[in-house]
From TrEMBL:
UniProt EC number: 2.7.1.11
Protein name per UniProt: ATP-dependent 6-phosphofructokinase
Domain Phosphofructokinase: 18-323, 403-686
Gene encoding the protein: PFKM
Organism the protein comes from: Capra hircus (Goat)
Record field: catalytic activity: beta-D-fructose 6-phosphate + ATP = beta-D-fructose 1,6-bisphosphate + ADP + H(+)
Lineage: Eukaryota, Metazoa, Chordata, Craniata, Vertebrata
EC category: transferase
UniProt GO MF annotations: 6-phosphofructokinase activity; AMP binding; ATP binding; fructose-6-phosphate binding; identical protein binding; metal ion binding; monosaccharide binding
Binding positions for substrate per the UniProt entry: 164-166, 201, 208-210, 264, 292, 298-301
Length: 780
């Protein structure tokens, strides 16, 4: 990385102008994207314009196209919807309208357009681009623009960001707004579950998704629904029988409620709509259950964006500006997309084409193809749902193999969802599943019991750890642990937990030399708010903690905005790992985030204070500073608070807030529920295979490195990695992995907070092709 390249980003936009618009249905997180486009655009030296009211504003021009300033996007990160407005626009569909739009852009010297919207809006942008030179020559002929203006604006660059709550755009794992819509749906499902249980009711919930069943599918995984209807995969012809049998089976197992999720576009094999009323009437007529229908409607578009959508919007906004400014007349219009946790550029029209192919496949009733085109992540969700909801556990009690499940470390939201899917997939495979209370300590003391199907009923949405969890490591109790492995005939171990689960795994590997009983396969599922387990980019529970911190920061910012000239210093958890502080800083719009991984000196603190002093002279008179609990032993939260208080005298006053254990609590977010459910299912499938492999002379004997693994998400796939191989990637003293992917997002945090720093442009997304992506997509 040369110094010239560094410098380039800051001057990349000089003499250029960018316009940003939001179009089509609104989605939470659009504001985060607009804010990032404006600020990064200004940072590169470009002028940035808001286009109000979508394409309508582009056609009407005038006051609808206004120059944006740094302060004009302040306080919009936490707002839902789109602040600059969106409208469905008929005029832009006609050439006459596009001619007027081109005129408005040329007159202002704007040749870069960032469109945030669904596939319709993005297709419109591509049409506009392909006609650009014809539109210009028409404008020149009619004398509306000069030859000089036409030459200056000879080509138009377009970048799309997909904002749509349906997640119906092919080519990206998540569209902006999907995660927030899931948050709204799950809040409601949780609320309905409590009332349904009181009255032993059946609830039919209708969620949005005319042509795409993503919201319905993930919701049903996240709440353990009895049945889901999605347009991509209509039920078999005798579905009425099957559904009623399924509902009465659930009731007979002792459940007091049934939940059925319906996507608004649900159809049967003949393409005839299946409505929520149809389902209600069927259940009432056949089973006589007290049944209620709830149609969620526009609630799903509302509310504040989740932490995930704010970070996604911000990252995509940064990438969009870079793609626009690096664009040439030959680069195709591209769309920024997310693959695993990587940002990639994809040709816009390729994505639109595949998205249209799905709809066509569904219209022509080629449903298998529609499912395949949705991608691997969608298929995986569907497979796990089918297993958990439709496969009957075997009746016989004998059990093939015995697998034990436990929680280790500190509680994290989503642990229970992981236990639930592990137990149920184990039972479906015909295994005997045991649950261990209180971690390795319980394993030593014999606090072990057998779990049946309904033991874990309703666990998905519950926070904390129902099995109980301790930080105790196994080494000092090997004698007792070995005795209990023999006594309970445990043949495999699923360990759900944080850094201790990983170090405990290493100790078990070490112990195999002395104790044959420890030669059984085990797998670690990372679950900790700190997200510090080696071998995984994400851990169960981190997303929930992030949202909790974010919500608190929003409230604190609101209070600061009222009192003016106030700086808040907030301490977050995470041990030595700066993940929560950094990501919450991005999601809440912090001025700085102090972390252990990026050492800082008194000079850096001085620069930060000076920066806030300058900020108080603008219209934005408040500051937010995050500090990871162990970022520096001497520069404590109190020290930083005192420093800011002293230096800010007469300019701003400071307040401090230690968030503490609220970060470990709360009901798990949809992401954590879904992630945990899929991790549990994948771990149990691996376990069954490993036990079969290790079966020798009537007993299990596993002594290879690959029989003790961490299951982690790496870039775009879920992978099993031997714990022993991860040793060299670990900083044991500070309990963190030596390399952490999210550190690359730190510069974005600083640029969005108006620091004059160098943005490393070598790390940017490269153009890929959607066909290639299909095969290597995130396997989660």
């Amino acid at each position: 990385m040369t110094h010239e390249e560094h410098h380039e980003a800051k001057t990349l936009g000089i003499g250029k102008a960018i316009a940003v618009l939001t179009s089509g249905g609104d989605a939470q997180g659009m504001n985060a994207a607009v804010r990032a486009v404006v600020r990064v655009g200004i940072y590169t030296g470009a002028r940035v314009f808001f286009v109000h009211e979508g394409y309508q504003g582009l056609v009407d021009g005038g006051d609808n196209i206004r120059e944006a300033t740094w302060e004009s996007v302040s306080m919009m990160l936490q707002l839902g919807g789109t602040v600059i407005g969106s409208a469905r626009c008929k005029d832009f569909r006609e050439r006459e309208g596009r001619l007027r739009a081109a005129h408005n852009l040329v007159k202002r010297g704007i040749t870069n357009l960032c469109v945030i919207g669904g596939d319709g809006s993005l297709t419109g942008a591509d049409t506009f681009r392909s006609e650009w030179s014809d539109l210009l020559s028409d404008l020149q002929k009619s004398g509306k623009i000069t030859a000089e203006e036409a030459t200056k604006s000879s080509y138009l660059n377009i970048v799309g960001l997909v904002g749509s709550i349906d997640n119906d755009f092919c080519g990206t794992d998540m569209t902006i707004g999907t995660d927030s819509a899931l948050h709204r749906i799950i809040e409601i499902v949780d609320a309905i579950t409590t009332t349904a249980q009181s009255h032993q009711r059946t609830f039919v919930l209708e969620v949005m998704g005319r042509h795409c069943g993503y919201l319905a599918l993930v919701t049903s995984l996240s709440c353990g629904a009895d049945w889901v209807f999605i347009p991509e995969c209509p039920p078999d012809d005798d579905w009425e029988e099957h559904l009623c049998r399924r509902l009465s089976e659930t009731r007979n197992r002792g459940s007091r409620l049934n939940i059925i999720i319906v996507a608004e576009g649900a159809i049967d094999k003949q393409g005839k709509p299946i409505t929520s009323e149809d389902i209600k009437n069927l259940v009432v007529k056949r089973l006589g259950y007290d049944t209620r229908v709830t149609v969620l409607g526009h609630v799903q578009r509302g509310g504040t964006p989740s932490a995930f959508d704010r970070i996604l919007g911000s990252r995509m906004g940064v990438e969009a500006v870079m793609a626009l400014l690096e664009g040439t007349p030959d680069t195709p219009a591209c769309v920024m997309s997310l693959s695993g946790n990587q940002a990639v550029r994809l040709p816009l029209m390729e994505c639109v084409q595949v998205t249209k192919d799905v709809t066509r496949a569904m219209d022509e009733r080629r449903f298998d193809e529609a499912m395949k085109l949705r991608g691997r992540s969608f298929m995986n969700n569907w497979e796990v749902y089918k297993l958990l909801a439709h496969v009957r556990p075997p009746k016989s009690k004998s059990g093939l193999h015995t697998v034990a499940v436990m929680n280790v470390g500190a509680p994290a939201a989503g642990m229970n969802a992981a236990v639930r899917s592990t137990v149920r997939i184990g039972l479906i495979q015909g295994n005997r599943v045991l649950v261990v209370h209180d971690g390795f300590e319980g394993l030593a003391k014999g606090q072990i019991e057998e779990a049946g199907w309904s033991y874990v009923g309703g666990w998905t949405g519950q926070g904390g750890s129902k099995l109980g969890t301790k930080r105790t490591l196994p080494k000092k109790s090997f004698e007792q642990i070995s005795a209990n492995i023999t006594k309970f005939n445990i043949q495999g171990l699923v360990i759900i937990g944080g850094f201790e689960a990983y170090t405990g795994g290493l100790e078990l590997m070490e112990g195999r030399k002395q104790y044959d009983e420890l030669c059984i396969p085990f797998v670690v599922i990372p679950a900790t708010v700190s997200n510090n387990v080696p071998g995984s980019d994400f851990s169960v529970g981190a997303d929930t903690a992030l949202n909790t911190i974010c919500m608190t920061c929003d409230r604190i910012k609101q209070s600061a905005a009222g009192t003016k000239r106030r700086v808040f210093i907030i301490e977050t958890m995470g041990g030595y790992c700066g993940y929560l502080a950094t990501m919450a800083g991005l999601a809440a719009g912090a001025d700085a985030a102090y972390i252990f991984e990026e050492p800082f000196t008194i000079r850096d603190l001085q620069v930060n204070v000076e920066h806030l002093v300058q900020k108080m002279k603008t219209t934005v008179k408040r500051g937010l500073v995050l500090r990871n609990e162990k970022c520096n032993e001497n520069y404590t939260t109190d020290f930083i608070f005192n420093l800011y208080s002293e230096e800010g005298k007469g300019i701003f006053d400071s307040r401090k807030n230690v968030l503490g254990h609220m970060q470990q609590g709360g009901s798990p977010t949809p992401f954590d529920r879904n992630f945990a459910t899929k991790m549990g299912a994948k771990a149990m499938n691996w376990m069954s295979g490993k036990i079969k492999e290790s079966y020798r002379n009537g007993r299990i004997f596993a002594n290879t490195p690959d029989s003790g693994c961490v299951l982690g998400m790496r870039k775009r796939a879920l992978v099993f990695q031997p714990v022993t191989e991860l040793q060299e990637q670990t900083d044991f003293e500070h309990r963190i992995p030596k390399e952490q992917w999210w550190l690359k997002l730190r510069p974005i945090l600083k640029i969005l907070a108006k620091y004059e720093i160098d943005l490393d442009t070598s790390e940017h997304a490269h153009l890929e092709h959607i066909t290639r992506k299909r095969s290597g997509e995130a396997n989660i």
